[in-house]
Amino acid sequence: MTFLSSVISQDTVPDLPQDLAVPADTVRAPKTTISGKVTDSVGASLPGATVQIKGTETGTITDGEGKYQINIPSENTSPVLVFSFVGFEGKEVRVDNQSQINVTLASEEEELEEVVVIGYGSARKADLTGSIAQVSTEEVNAYPTTNVLQAMAGRAPGVQVIQNDGSPGGGVNIRIRGSNSIQGDNSPLYVIDGFPYSGSPTNLNNADIASIEVLKDASATAIYGSRGANGVVLITTKGGVQAPTTVEFDAYYSVQNLRKKLGLMDGRQYAQLMNIQAENDGIDPYFSEGEIAGYGSGTDWQDQVFDQAPIKSSSIRVSGGNEATRFSVGGSVFDQEGIIQGSDYNRYALQSSIHHTLSDKFTIDFSTNLTKLTTARRDSDGGARGNSMIGSALVASPLSTPYNQDGTLTILSQDYPFVSPDIINPLNYINEEFNNVTANIVLANASVSYQPIPKLTIKILGGIENRDDRTDVYRTTDFINSDGNASVNTRQYISRLNENTIAYTDTINEKHKFDILAGFTYQDFQTRYLAGSAAGFLSDLFETDNLGAATTPGIPTSGYAKSVLLSYIGRVNYNYADKYLFTATWRADGSSRYSEGNKWGHFPSAAVAWRVSQEGFMQDQTVISELKIRTSWGLTGSQAIDPYSTLNRLFPGYTVFGEELYSTFAPQSLLPGDLKWETTEQFDLGMDLGIVGGRIMIGADFYVKNTRDLLSTVRLPSSYGYTTTIANVGEIQNKGLELSLDAIVLNKAFRWDVKGNISFNRNKVVSLNEGNPILTNYINVVTVADNFSIMEEGRPLGQFWGYQEDGYTEEGNIRYKDLDGDGEITDSDKTAIGDPNPDFFYGINSTMTYKNFQLDLFLQGSKGNDIFNVSSISSTMDYGQGLNMPAEVLEDHWTPQNTDAKYPLISRNTDLKVSDRYVEDGSYLRLKNIQLAYDFSFPESKWIGNLKLYVSGQNLLTFTDYSWWDPEVNSNGGDTSLGIDHYSYPIPKSYTLGLRATF
Description:
The protein has 999 residues and is mostly beta strands. It contains 11 helices and 53 strands. The strands form 11 sheets. It has a 22-stranded antiparallel barrel. It has a 5-stranded mixed beta sheet with strand order 10-15-16-13-14.
């Protein structure tokens, strides 16, 4: 770790006459005044920094320009000033005979950039040979987000953050350098304080995070072997520092709103469209001209479902320490109400850590994260003809009212004879149904480090992750056509970890630096679940608290699964003269999930780097301050299957012999396979360039990833007696380019910093089982029932597949292209109609500071990705069912006078197929956050160190051609089903007021 030295300027002490001269340390006025300025490493002032006389209570605070003045009592004969500021490394400076002391503090962020967390250790950034991106604590907390994954969007090259929807606590998918697997999860491995965590780290409070490192290439990820193919995200939470006890407080309040409303028809327009449909289908008109003229706007069902909603967040942290012990304790509360009434997400977190030096040989570390999550879900997406909450909010007739005169909910399907019987008043889902999830999460680590000699460290670590989930779903007796339905699902997941490593670091002849790591690890994964249900309640009093009160109890189910992973690891880092760097890594993983003979996988990697800027021929130039060229190769893996997938399991059932019911055990339809690891081979070529004294930093990486032995479900001939099996069937390739830029544009009284990154990735299926394509993503919205995606050799994963439209017939019906020329429209006429994978995605962050003001702008976007708008099928094309639609359907449909219309003839006989009509450009540029902050300084205060007040706005501007609520949508999650919008919970915009204070 590199520590920046203090910049100290001394006033010259006047020479005394020779006969009066005495030792300098004995000459001191009754009270000495010391003044100066405290700045960061680039010269920016630090208002609110603490200046304290060591060992006393006397101190002061720097003013708005970072200046201070402090009086030294005469009795203090050898004073030392302690300079400290939150987020910066503290400094101690002896006063001696100085009257002016200017100090430069090194920020913790800079220190984190100098020392980077890697797998099972850390390394100087200058010594890295792999491709690693960093996200700082300031970036994680730059604007309000539900979890750390959302905060990573646009912050790191090669990292694509895919927001599934806008529901509180809604799912987020992270993809690092594309998708590698069909059967398995493509999310990266998250390692929290050294613990390989299951699932997404939604248990963490953003304010507790100190740094995030994203390991991307095989050199960086191979140390995690069978779980490194999708990249690794290392999350380090905040710990204590050797400094006086500090209290940090962070709080904000946000107001969320629907970003935009869809332009649906009002009451008069709705009645007009219904009459047009009746006329085209030869039916008497539903409404008279007089009735239509008398209709107004009617009910705005979007207003009935969506509402303004707050986010409230607060956290407090106490930290400090001395040479022997460093500690940190923090608590937080996050409360988000959703813009759909009745939805919310609450997180209560307690994070703590302690580091204690027992002796010069032994140290102990302990960290824990305790989290309670509660969620009320109102995100019943999907559906057709109004049989889901969001779907019905868009298609419900504006001529209908939410409530009857007696206060009961209206039955929309009974308002008019032409209305679909499937439609349900959306307030049923809001008022008469709940889906509540509660989770208690414990993540704890403890380790002992022993140094028998100064260069050798033996570390033993034990950790545990425990998660208890419970989901309660209840539909009341007042819900339409319901007699009361309840279900309860509980799950207990526990993972135990033991890591044993030995590390040796040495330098020979000041040029040969070695860092060697070896060890073995054990981790197990155990799940138990229990589920029960019931229907037919006489009263809603019990809800899910007494399933036995129902007239029809369901059959309870339970289950158990366990798997074990045993691993051996090794790594060697070699550095010659800070010029030539070499890293070799090897890991062997043994998993209980795989077949005999295939349980062990071996994952080696190697990387080399050349710091060209350290060569002698580079020393006489002043333009390039840093130039590193690096390349790496390696293998990583993916387990990709559930426990017991390779075993011939028997499953319980029932059968009847005679008049008796007997319990049975029999194989299921899945034939067990002899399976081996999915293996990802990756090559990376990268460059890190610093110019103009490091004011401009440029990063570039080119990579090629090939994943072979893909695991996928394969259908079997009926003669087998089994329907499907899992097999190693093919290969997927990802290759791409990543670019990043960090620049200090201006660095004077007005400072301007710009960070940006852009990533290009091309994904294709190289081979599949016997070359046969696989159709995926089946939809059934009544008028359309078909697959609309394909996996096929030579095509990107998840490409949309369907028919191409070719205008309209003379009758106004849709014409489809006959691509094979056989005169008929059949499956052979289907073709590629879109690609959900972006051409590139990017993020730009601008920070401008002047005196105590700071203005931040964060832009994030994606280009070239398509969205399959399933929502628009029912909402724009399903005629004759009394469904409300966008006003443009009325304004631009086919008539003999308007044959080049956007929509066909309004008729219930319209022939609909999966076609390019529903594929839209999902490209967007979004002002993710804009924030104006002011730093207050309190130079006379002894207890307020710093206070920042800020106002900000999120998602205020979005530039896109996508017609629906939001282009950031991924209804179905996953990788073979990217880019689907099926009545998803929309992402809101919000306004925020917040403060951060240090005491």
